[in-house]
What does this fold into?
Amino acid sequence: MKTSTDITRRRMLITASGAVAWAGLGGGLALADSTEPAAKSAPGPVSSAKPLPPYAKWKDADSMIVHSANTIETRRNAFGSSGITPLDRLYIRNNIAPPSEDIMKDPDAWKLEVSGVKSPRSFTVAELKSLGLASVTIVLQCSGNGRGFSEHKPSGTQWTVGAAGCVIFTGVPVKAVLEATGGMADGMVYMTSTGGEEIPPGLDPKSIMVERSVPVSGIEDAILAWEANGEPLPLAHGGPLRVIVPGYAGVNNVKYVKHVAFTKEQSPANIQQSSYRFSPIGVKGTPEFDSIWEMDPKSWVTLPSDPGVPVKAGRVQISGVAMGGMSEAKKVEVSVNGGKDWQEATLTGPDLGKYAWRGFVLAADLKPGKYELASRVTNADGTSQPEMRKENNRGYMNNSWRDHMVTIDVA
Amino acid sequence: MKTSTDITRRRMLITASGAVAWAGLGGGLALADSTEPAAKSAPGPVSSAKPLPPYAKWKDADSMIVHSANTIETRRNAFGSSGITPLDRLYIRNNIAPPSEDIMKDPDAWKLEVSGVKSPRSFTVAELKSLGLASVTIVLQCSGNGRGFSEHKPSGTQWTVGAAGCVIFTGVPVKAVLEATGGMADGMVYMTSTGGEEIPPGLDPKSIMVERSVPVSGIEDAILAWEANGEPLPLAHGGPLRVIVPGYAGVNNVKYVKHVAFTKEQSPANIQQSSYRFSPIGVKGTPEFDSIWEMDPKSWVTLPSDPGVPVKAGRVQISGVAMGGMSEAKKVEVSVNGGKDWQEATLTGPDLGKYAWRGFVLAADLKPGKYELASRVTNADGTSQPEMRKENNRGYMNNSWRDHMVTIDVA
It folds into this structure.
């Protein structure tokens, strides 16, 4: 992976019509895609390819589907079979445009404020590095991954399978930071993290700021990360510093984090109060509905899935990825006939811990014909991936095995 | 990581004087570094940086020390702390120049011949992909890693710590290939793999060909790999297809493998018969000396180690990497006073299996002064990294903890 030190400070704009435009306009125009405009196209590979935005131009273009400057997914056939997702193939989803690349010039100087603790203070990344070192491998997955399969066409990016990846993050345990600040102040029940995006002047910060709260029960294995897959964490993935809350949906892993507060209440930001809520179809999100926090078991077949390429008849290795959510992926079954019959697959790849995904493979002898390949994971808690999605207004957390099937032609 | 499809077919030449030169000379001039000229410089960062050769130009230049076009190591401070080594920071050591980048145009079409089995045949990579799928994470380490610390100045590249990395390889188990070919022919005791390098006309192939034999006891977890860390295996690391023999030194993991033979005898190639042998200082290698096969336990501190950058007094996280050789790294101790006193470190990072390395970290409170940081690993078999190197003519397999110490200034 090339770091992007040569990236200009131009920002990306998504116009109201969804067209991509570049603007050399300095710091003011950070707003992009935060309102998630309604679906404009069917799910699947985008035929008229959009270019990678400058901050992500080091991505492997052939492996990515660019929905917009802030929404880029991995193609189904590009995940590889090694357990981890290479950074140059990892999806991107920003709620608003990332900060200037300037913040990566001296990542160790980036400052984090810590409050809601006995001894509030700020730390540079260099100071955080002196507090501890830990790695955790997680599935990073956008809450809207799989939205493109919903029949009611929820507004937002029409992700198929690729707004997810499995990444080894390295940094300091949140617990070590708590220890260095005297522990949580009394009565705090959430960890609230604030992103370092610039808020365009004239806007109510609450309407746009990326600030997310998670219950403190979720921070047992949380870290503040400066490294991913052995590389310094790039801006596109939240560098210089990102909160990693293992098992929690992508939005909770706040990028360019500038403030971690332990709080009694959830953040007042729209992204916490009304967005990322499990509300029924047609009902706007409010705090009475569950927040998008813990992820569910989910799997999908990744190969064979080359669009338009027939598979050679005979022995075929059907492979994919399977996550357990809050406990490890324990068993994966594969069907070649759309879920009528199932066979247990073999887990492959390294076991990277309970928050990671595992590869799986099933050898099948396939005669010429059409096959609907499906997979279904069961986690260590005994929870299985369901056949049907849990319907909700914004199409969050779709883990239906039926929705995630892929059809292949064997010749 | 960018794949190098735009790389020209120019080859790199190392002239007799050690200078780097480029030549647009087609296929003939593959010879480079096979004779490992005597040391020309002291170990440590090379002050006059050489450029990355075209086939490896996608490497992160700041993380690498370029000894020659075929010998490129990772800087001590560039390994990261995530367990795996990113491909763009992984060392390169070729015995002779790699084949043309053309062989990567259609990697699935690359052909492997399999012999010494009941039903000899050849397979394309596409056919191998139908036979099975497995991942194995290994420390890939050049036999000469650490040679630069030897006092007798053995001939060959003066590697310090960086001719090693930890990589997730994915491919087909050798056992699945054996199954598809009726099993080993009777009486075979070695797996002999031949690289796809071009042999310059006029040379005795035996004098230069990369062909290595390993005992069949070593192939239990061996694979034929087409993927590394989730990316298609690049030419620089042996793509389209590489033999991976977990636990065995780098040279046994033959790149661009074109032939795997099960044999009664070891390869007649010089690289098997006389090179890579544990002969005493001053004695040329011959088959009577042990071949360089299984690796030993080894560790080294990676951070802090920024050259010329003083470390801030106070709490310092001392971290590094530790491999167990043929069994997992079980315990790591760290010394800040050159091995007088030791403290047990904490293992970090993912546990990627017994052939991988683990990160380790020790928190130390350091006052201003000079410190000699050392680490010492003990594997699951109870074997500890020794203080002194096992002296041998070519400086192979140096795992002395004393040699691998790093001195830091705390201010």
About this structure: Residues 1-294 of chain A form a domain with the Sulfite Oxidase; Chain A, domain 2 fold (CATH 3.90.420.10). Chain A touches chain B through 48 residues (CB under 8 Å). The longest strand of chain A covers residues 369-379.
